[in-house]
């Protein structure tokens, strides 16, 4: 695989898992369970369509970043001066808001596993995340950590899915012939998988590892598709676990739907497994959000570039302090979730424009089908993003 053999392969897999585990956070677990509850087996169709759209969005972004060798904010500044700063601001704000939620999720995972209080669990989790960035080889450690977290989540959830005995045949049938099609669910999933900072996390990781230029295109493509597939596998496994429990006529607890899936499928052991999955999902998202948010301001100043690991650490510390003092500010998360819905159409459109600018990608020819695919995702997510803003803003003033 590539000219440097093992190293490249581990970085490509690391980038794919960084992106995948960034998207598999506390919100991912809750969303997947709640949608399974409302759409039942037909949710399989939503997952299938969203994976296809995710691949379309991610290929556009990773190819432009990889070919140009420039991070998202620098590409945006080349498309339109000043745009990169605006995109960076959106991503850092979004990343910070989500990181408070991720830290909360990590604390909750600790609480389920060991019974210690959520804030203490959050602080311990933050220290674990910070310790990765104290090492010179932070990139490789991050690669390894996110891969282990990803495998642990998938294997444990698979065990729960098998235990819940889901109607697999029905799930497969309804994936291709759904009873109901929910466009809102599709866009929510696309936003949750490649929205905000997430799609850039792996692309920026490849730049840091020097996997750039046209010669690296096959590797960039493979890594970007792998990332979406890993997220898809986790989503399918969790969907089947939830479907199995719901098909038995069992009621999910609305306060914590994913925890009740694990609990109802495997009893108390299942609840502990949920703690592990929740923690792995949250801590890997903390790492991904902090790393990617800081990568969006790195190129603006040599000070940040030279000390970027300390900025990542400061980002994690700040998120943890906010959570410890304020708890999980619901309004902040609503605002951030709304903003995040608007980030994807903006950044993706910028990348599609950049893909056709010689000054950015040189003599690289971007496939037309990929641009068309990207534009479809831009229009869908922009429409939904605007709807979300209209629906959510009144809630903030209530």
Give a short overview.
With 398 residues, the chain is mostly helical. The chain is built from 17 helices and no strands.
Walk me through the structure.
One of its GO terms (molecular function) is cadmium ion transmembrane transporter activity. The chain has 398 residues and is mostly helical. It has one domain (6-396): Amino acid/polyamine transporter I (Up-down Bundle). 82% of the residues lie in helices and 0% in strands. The protein contains 17 helices and no strands. Helix 1 packs across helix 12 (257-295).
Give keywords:
398 residues, mainly alpha, NRAMP_fam, membrane
Number of helices: 17
Write down the Rg: 20 Å
The ordered H/E elements are HHHHHHHHHHHHHHHHH
- Architecture in CATH? Up-down Bundle
Q: Portion of residues in helices?
A: over 70%
If you average the pLDDT, what whole number results? 91
- Name the CATH homologous superfamily: Amino acid/polyamine transporter I
Query: Can you tell me the CATH topology?
Result: Amino acid/polyamine transporter I
Would you report the number of β strands? 0
Protein name: Mn2+ and Fe2+ transporters of the NRAMP family
GO molecular function, one term: manganese ion transmembrane transporter activity
Subcellular location: Membrane
Organism: Megamonas hypermegale
């Amino acid at each position: 695989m590539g000219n440097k053999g093992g190293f490249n392969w581990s970085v490509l897999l690391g980038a794919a898992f960084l992106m995948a585990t960034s998207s598999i956070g506390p919100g991912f677990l809750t969303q997947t369970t709640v949608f399974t509850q409302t759409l039942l087996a037909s949710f399989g169709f939503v997952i299938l369509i969203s994976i296809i759209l995710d691949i379309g969005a991610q290929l556009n972004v990773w190819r432009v970043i990889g070919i140009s060798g420039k991070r998202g904010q620098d590409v945006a500044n080349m498309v339109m001066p000043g745009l990169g700063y605006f995109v960076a601001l959106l991503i850092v704000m979004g990343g910070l808001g989500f990181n408070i939620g991720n830290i909360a999720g990590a604390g909750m995972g600790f609480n389920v596993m060991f019974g210690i209080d959520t804030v203490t669990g959050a602080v311990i989790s933050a220290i674990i995340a910070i310790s990765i960035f104290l090492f010179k080889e932070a990139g490789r450690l991050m690669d390894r950590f996110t891969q282990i977290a990803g495998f642990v989540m998938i294997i444990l959830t698979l065990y729960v899915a098998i235990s819940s005995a889901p109607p697999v045949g029905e799930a497969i049938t309804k994936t291709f012939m759904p009873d109901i099609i929910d466009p809102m669910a599709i866009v929510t999933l696309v936003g949750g998988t490649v929205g905000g900072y997430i799609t850039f996390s792996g692309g920026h990781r490849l730049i840091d590892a020097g996997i750039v230029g046209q010669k690296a295109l096959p590797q960039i493509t493979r890594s970007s598709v792998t990332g979406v597939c890993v997220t898809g596998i986790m989503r399918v496994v969790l969907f089947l676990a939830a479907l199995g429990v719901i098909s038995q006529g069992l009621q999910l607890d609305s306060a914590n739907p994913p925890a009740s899936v694990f609990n109802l499928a495997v009893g108390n052991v299942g609840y502990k497994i949920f703690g592990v999955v929740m923690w792995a999902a949250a801590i890997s998202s903390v790492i991904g959000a902090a790393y990617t948010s800081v990568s969006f301001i790195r190129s603006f100043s040599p000070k940040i570039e030279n000390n970027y690991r300390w900025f990542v650490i400061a980002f994690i510390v700040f998120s943890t302090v906010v959570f410890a003092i304020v708890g999980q500010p619901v309004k902040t998360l609503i605002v951030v979730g709304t903003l995040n819905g608007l980030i994807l159409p903006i950044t993706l459109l910028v990348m599609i424009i950049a893909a056709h600018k010689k000054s950015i990608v040189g003599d690289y020819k971007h496939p037309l089908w990929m641009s068309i695919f990207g534009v479809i995702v831009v229009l869908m997510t922009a429409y939904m993003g605007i709807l979300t803003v209209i629906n959510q803003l009144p809630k903030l003033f209530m």
